[in-house]
Specification:
The complex is a heterodimer of chains A (547) and B (381). With 547 residues, chain A is α/β, with parallel strands linked by helices. Chain A is 32% helix and 25% strand. In chain A, strand 11 and strand 12 form a beta hairpin. The N terminus of chain A is likely disordered. Chain B is mainly α. Chain B has 15 helices and 3 strands. Chain B has a 3-stranded antiparallel sheet. In chain B, a hairpin with a 3-residue loop joins strand 1 and strand 2. In chain B, helix 3 crosses helix 12. The longest helix of chain B is centred in the middle third of the chain and has 30 residues. Classes of the chains: A alpha/beta (547), B mainly alpha (381). The interface between A and B is medium-sized, with 43 and 26 residues.
Chain lengths: 547, 381
């Protein structure tokens, strides 16, 4: 670790022992982390079941598994956030007990979580030195900045040391987190789904940076559920399923298909079968729509399009180009400053959300947990969120005028039916929604939204962050709704998803459509260029009257 | 995570996903026991035997006829205000203003009883109680409206309106409503007999309010869990974004919540007038801070109207028992307030234990280590 001026060393016995382990030199290829027989119970769940896991110096080791497979739990144990019920951990051959992240840091283990642990109003330097116990009253800004520069050159981790965290993009914040770990002397880095915050264009340089680090002998544990990332960056991969290790393989000796099978436990179909559907009448019509974002800046600058029955209309674009505002205006959650929204020919511009929902509109929100569910309420209460004030879920008195008492019998019947139909894995319909895994939360939302046979479905990033099994299920479900004649507006950053599901694709950039193309005529390079704002194509496709 | 405190004690804690009813009850009990231990130390500081003091509190307020009936009487305003607050808190509307809403209910009751002629005797009591509810509700709707219109912080507005109500009562009893036959005391005239709530013979328990308070507690339990409005209140409180997304009308929900919350406090005030005081007087004499104690009642009852019945009863025990030991053991007047404060503090201090599973390991090298381990493992497991 870098010595700060005026450094005071006052360390407990075990801490200095751990520091010795950290400073022990190992050669590339030697084992640095070994977890033996790790078992961890949570109430009702066996999160880790006798897991053996080993990482060598100088490798990127991918930890692959579906949501809820136990990847993050295992790494939280290695980082000292949880204590294992059973099992042992060896770092560079020495048996250790990691009681807290402080111990982990002493041992040279750093972890970058999915959610950043940074102070927004502090500068990069301040965040990096935060919590260092060697710190004096005066922050050695220049010293740290020099070190940052060195990291910048060595790994391509460029960052402005005096920038405030809130000014940074998600990708840059992640860089700060990684630098923070390196600065504390970490040579074993745990990255929890690091690419989930990166834009498509940031992924490649990020992988190059990881390769540079391991070339120096550092070890990286890469938690992910994305197969292509495993193939692109890792040396070895350990696959977890339901808390158990399925196997550890050399990446060069395996392929996506095999990994998917190991991860899901069955064959996965990558190509979706999309039947031809004749498109019908327009369901959603948006005319010259404008709206402001939360900061009061115009985020939507005159967008027009139509979505027809039996059609999936995909909107591709980098996050923050007006997609969120567009969906919010259509669903009534945000006011339009100009323009019109018609659903089934009726003007619903700036109508309250309930009026729009009653037009049989399903909305699969981007913010699944923040908006899509009520985490502390049970599954059954979550499933009726949109129907609780309609019969049969509410009893009617006085000639249907008094609708106030909930009909629990009907609610229970309905919930049990949906849980079965949409394969929501839960012990009971009375389980709080927050205890479900990510994929099951999305199933719950889909069950609620699709059970009313909606005529318009607005799906925002429907498979974002979900594992292969859940993704496949959800995409199939959307295609089925399309066959049933629903009009579907699909917003996604995932180009592969947009390309494989949509009938027409619009690209949004800086609040405007820069092109609308038919899916069969689209090519991925054009769309990529349009997303970056480099290319424009005609948008007449969206405005034509009949198809 | 694990924390080591010198070589004496190791504490391990982990976030828990869910808390069972049994664990929750255990933690509440532990919090109360801790509060009693702290109070015991305070009693000892006054030179009073702590065991005797705590014993006396319960012995008097539970096991003597006078004490027990007085406990049930004190429970009435606490239960009405507490249930109302529980509902407001469920909607995340931080109503600190039950005290003021209660006083406004008392003013309304006095206004009807003394200054509105021509109400038939059999209608007088129902009218008074209803007006108490309505005026309390209107007083509660002011901060609700301010929040909805101007996004004011309701903690401040509800709290400040307490002082307005307090001063208003003072103004009335020293000024325009001062009675003609009260020898210059700050009292209004006494209510006509038809405006007196009947009591259970031989006790101070005023029947209408007593029955109403229990009915409201049970009724609101069903309201919260089995009706669309209760469902809306819960969704708004748990996740405002999801509520908007589902098209739930936030304005309507908050107004209904505060209508109930303020109304019940107003009803409690009207009940104190018709059942206990029978005339308006200095606000301190009407309510020794029922509206504030009700905040503790609501939290102790975990914001569940049924549990609030128990917590209101419990706090009433402390008030009655606390007053008794002031007399019998010669303790100062503030003891009951200290008790309230300690309980609230301990409840808040125990809150992390609901979120985290905590285990304590005492170093057994020391003679008392193994004893502490046994003690803690029976208490915390």
């Amino acid at each position: 670790m870098l010595k700060l001026p005026g450094l005071k060393t006052l360390k407990s016995e075990s801490a200095s022992m751990y520091a010795k382990i950290r400073e022990k030199k190992v050669n590339i290829g030697e084992t640095v982390v070994e977890m033996r027989n790790i078992t961890k119970h949570f109430p009702g769940v066996l999160a880790n079941d006798h897991i053996n896991f080993e990482v060598k110096a100088g490798e990127v080791h991918a930890l692959l598994g579906e949501n809820g497979a136990g990847k993050t739990t295992l790494m939280n144990i290695l980082y000292g956030l949880y204590q294992p019920d059973e099992g042992e951990i060896y770092i560079k051959g020495e048996k250790v007990e990691i009681r807290s992240p402080k111990d982990a840091i002493e041992l040279g283990i750093g972890m970058v979580h999915q959610h950043f642990m940074l102070v927004d109003v502090f500068s990069v330097v301040e965040n990096i030195v935060l919590g260092l116990k060697e710190l004096n009253i005066v922050i050695p800004v220049e010293e740290v900045a020099k070190q940052l520069e060195e990291y910048g050159e060595r790994y391509g981790l460029k960052i402005d040391p005096s920038a405030k965290i809130w000014q940074l993009s998600a990708g840059e914040k992640q860089r700060v987190e990684i630098i923070k770990a390196l600065y504390r002397g970490a040579d074993i880095l745990i990255l929890d789904e690091p690419t989930s915050v990166l834009a498509q264009s940031e992924v490649k340089p990020f992988f190059e940076m990881l390769r540079k680090m391991v070339a120096e002998g550092k070890s990286i544990i890469f938690i992910t559920h994305k197969l292509e990332e495993v193939m692109a960056v890792s040396d070895r991969v350990t696959v977890l399923r339901k808390g158990k290790v399925v196997g550890t393989l050399k990446t060069s000796e395996t392929n996506e298909r095999e990994l998917a099978r190991m991860m899901v436990g069955r064959e996965v179909i990558f190509r979706l079968e999309k039947k031809p559907v004749k498109r019908g009448k327009p369901v959603l019509e948006v005319v010259n729509l404008r709206a402001l974002n939360d900061k009061g800046v115009e985020a939507l600058k005159g967008v027009s399009f139509k979505v027809y029955e039996g059609e999936i209309f995909g909107i591709a674009g980098v996050a923050g180009n007006g997609q969120k505002e567009l969906i919010e205006v259509i669903t009534g959650l945000r006011k339009a400053t100009a323009g019109k929204v018609y659903i089934m020919g009726e003007d619903v511009t700036n109508k309250p959300p309930r009026v729009i929902l009653k037009k049989n509109v399903a909305h699969i929100p981007e913010e699944r947990i923040e908006m899509g569910i009520i985490p502390n309420m049970n599954i059954s209460e979550n499933l009726i969120l949109k129907y609780y004030n309609e019969p049969p879920f509410v009893k009617e008195f006085y000639n249907e005028k008094l609708r106030i008492v909930l009909n629990e019998e009907e609610i229970e019947k309905f919930s049990n039916r949906l849980v079965k139909e949409y394969e929501i894995m839960t012990p009971s319909i009375k389980t709080p929604a927050k205890l479900l895994s990510g994929g099951n939360i999305q199933r719950l939302i889909l069950a609620r939204e699709l059970s009313s046979n909606p005529s318009l479905i607005i799906a925002a990033h429907p498979t974002y962050g979900l594992d292969v099994g859940a993704t496949e299920y959800i995409r199939k479900l959307l295609l089925k709704e399309r066959e049933k004649g629903a009009a579907i507006l699909l917003v996604s950053e995932d180009l592969e998803e947009i390309m494989s599901l949509s009938d027409r694709i619009a690209v949004i950039f800086a609040g405007e459509f820069v092109g609308i193309v038919k899916a069969e005529e689209a090519n991925i390079e054009d769309i990529g260029l349009m997303m970056a704002g480099i290319k424009r194509m005609p948008i007449s496709e969206g405005l034509e009257r009949e198809g | 995570m694990r924390v080591k405190i010198f070589n004496l004690l190791t504490i391990e804690y982990e976030k828990r996903q869910e808390i069972t009813l049994e664990q929750s009850l255990k933690l509440t009990t532990m919090a109360l026991v801790t509060a009693f231990i702290i109070m015991g130390i305070i009693f000892a500081g006054f030179g009073v035997n702590p065991f005797l003091a705590i014993f006396s509190i319960f012995a008097w307020s539970l096991f003597t006829p006078a004490g027990f009936t007085s406990t049930l009487t004190r429970m009435i305003p606490l239960l009405l205000c507490g249930v109302g607050l529980a509902i407001a808190f469920r909607a995340l509307f931080w109503n600190i203003g039950a005290e003021g809403q209660l006083l406004m209910g008392a003013i309304a009751a006095t206004g009807i009883a003394l200054f509105v002629p021509g109400i038939p005797d059999f209608l007088l009591l129902p009218t008074i109680l209803l007006m108490g509810f309505i005026v309390g509700a209107l007083w509660g709707l002011i901060p609700a409206a301010l929040k909805l219109k101007f996004e004011t912080n309701e903690v401040i507005t509800t709290l400040m309106l307490n002082y307005v109500a307090f001063r208003l009562v003072k103004y009335l009893v020293y000024g325009p409503w001062k009675g003609k036959k009260v020898y210059n005391f700050p009292f209004s005239d006494t209510f006509p007999p038809a405006a007196w709530e009947p009591k259970i013979p031989g006790t101070p328990i005023y029947v209408y309010s007593f029955v109403l308070s229990l009915l409201f507690a049970v009724g609101l339990y069903f309201f919260m869990n089995k009706t669309t409005l209760g469902y809306e209140i819960r969704v708004v409180g748990e996740n405002i974004k999801a509520a908007r997304y589902a098209g739930i009308n936030y304005t309507k929900t908050i107004l209904i919540t505060m209508l109930i919350s303020g109304g019940l406090a107003g009803l409690a005030g009207a009940g104190l007038m018709t059942g206990v005081q029978h005339r308006l007087q200095n606000p301190e004499a009407i309510s020794p801070g029922y509206g504030y104690t009700a905040i503790i009642v609501a939290w102790l009852g975990r914001l569940n109207p049924l549990y609030v019945i128990l917590s209101a009863f419990f706090m009433a025990i402390l008030i009655v028992g606390g007053q008794q030991i002031q007399i019998t053991l010669g303790l100062p007047f503030g003891v009951v307030n200290i008790f309230n404060g300690v309980i609230l503090f301990v409840l808040i201090a125990f809150e992390p234990l609901r979120e985290y599973r905590v285990s304590f390991y005492w170093n057994e090298k020391y003679p008392w280590g193994s004893f502490m381990n046994k003690l803690f493992s029976t208490v915390f497991k």
